[in-house]
Design a protein that fits this description.
The radius of gyration is 21 Å and the shape is globular. The chain has 3 domains: 90 residues, 2-Layer Sandwich (Dna Ligase, domain 1), CATH 3.30.1490.70; 112 residues, D-amino Acid Aminotransferase, Chain A, domain 1 (2-Layer Sandwich); 87 residues, Orthogonal Bundle (Arc Repressor Mutant, subunit A), CATH 1.10.10. The protein is an alpha+beta fold. 35% of the residues lie in helices and 18% in strands. The protein has 9 helices and 11 strands. The strands form 2 sheets. A 6-stranded antiparallel β-sheet has the order 5-4-3-6-7-8. A 5-stranded mixed β-sheet has the order 1-11-10-2-9.
Length: 310
């Protein structure tokens, strides 16, 4: 699920215009956990598969010690119950959540052991995501993301508190990443499988810098190139790289540099185009190449520092 930023007024306006029920709907805010995307696929024949964002996990894949999380007693009991449920329904269910704990992210201290908390249930046969209310009723409290509060209408929901100690290890200074805001009783989903959900992050977790990074630009650089860079460079941040790594696992050494650089640049591109779909319309082919060459250079510097210095 691609979350929209709470300050993305263009996207919010579109959703409210074409989905009138959103304005006065009941909303829920859940804590946004700072970990790695994790999914559990339960089949009617009893088969269970586990996955990260980019695909299924093999049995010998390390991926942040994921096996420790699926061996917890509460997790095993829940998946056993879901095996019976999918067998009865004769169709699969997919549970999406966050893998968190030791060694995944450094900014929030949850606990040393690996755990999974779910936030979504997906029915592949119907191509439907369950409403948060139905997810809440199905998944035990110990296995679902913490609920922060309920709100009446979009205006109240957008003012949800998002700076507080994580509910999973509440102590002073151990601030959560933020919150995710969604309609409580219904999933609003387009034919292109886009869903209405908003992320409201704390400043230190934002993937877009408040001001562009300092850069050296030749005086003869065309003004349209400078204007485009002013829009896209703020998306090139160490935090965005951390999120890319959380989906794929840590790069082991410089042999994986090319792979992670491509993923990093693509994530920058996708997020920038989502919020600024026409930012490069005025660029010719040569100017566009210059822009993306400079974006690649910024991404490369941050990634190289991450691999070498950790």
């Amino acid at each position: 699920m691609k979350l929209r930023n709470h300050y993305d007024s263009r996207s919010l306006t579109w959703w409210l215009t074409w989905n009138l029920g959103l304005r006065d709907a009941k909303y829920v805010a859940t804590e946004k956990l700072h970990g790695a995307n994790f999914s559990t696929w339960v089949m009617p024949n009893g088969t269970v598969k586990y996955g990260k964002r980019s695909g299924f996990l093999s049995e010998d894949e390390s991926f942040f010690r994921w096996k420790e999380a699926v061996e917890h007693e509460d997790f095993v009991a829940f998946i056993d119950a879901m095996k019976h449920r999918t067998a009865r329904l004769r169709r699969s269910l997919v549970f999406y959540g966050e893998l968190f704990g030791g060694g995944i992210q450094k900014q929030v201290d949850y606990q040393p052991q690996q755990c999974v908390r779910f936030f979504d249930v997906y029915d592949p046969e119907k191509n439907e995501y369950w409403a948060p209310k139905d997810v809440y009723e199905l998944i035990p409290e110990a296995l679902r993301v913490p609920h922060v509060g309920f709100y009446n209408g979009i205006n109240e929901a957008m003012n949800a508190q998002h700076e507080f100690p994580t509910l999973l290890n509440p102590r002073e200074g151990n601030t959560c990443e933020g919150v995710v805001i969604r309609p409580w009783n219904k999933t609003y989903q387009t034919e292109a499988d886009k869903r209405f959900a908003i992320k409201k992050k704390n400043d230190k977790f934002k993937e877009k810098a408040k001001v562009p990074r300092a850069r050296k630009e030749p005086k003869e650089m065309p003004p349209e190139v400078i204007a485009a860079l002013d829009i896209i460079i703020p998306y090139v941040t160490p935090q965005r790289l951390s999120n890319v790594i959380s989906h794929e696992g840590e790069p082991q050494d410089m042999t994986e540099f090319g792979k992670f650089l491509r993923l990093y640049i693509q994530d920058v591109r996708d997020e920038c185009l989502q919020e600024n779909p026409h930012f490069h319309d005025s660029l010719g082919k040569k100017e566009a190449e210059t822009v993306w060459k400079m974006v690649g250079a910024h991404c490369s510097a941050i990634l190289k520092d991450k691999i070498i210095n950790g």
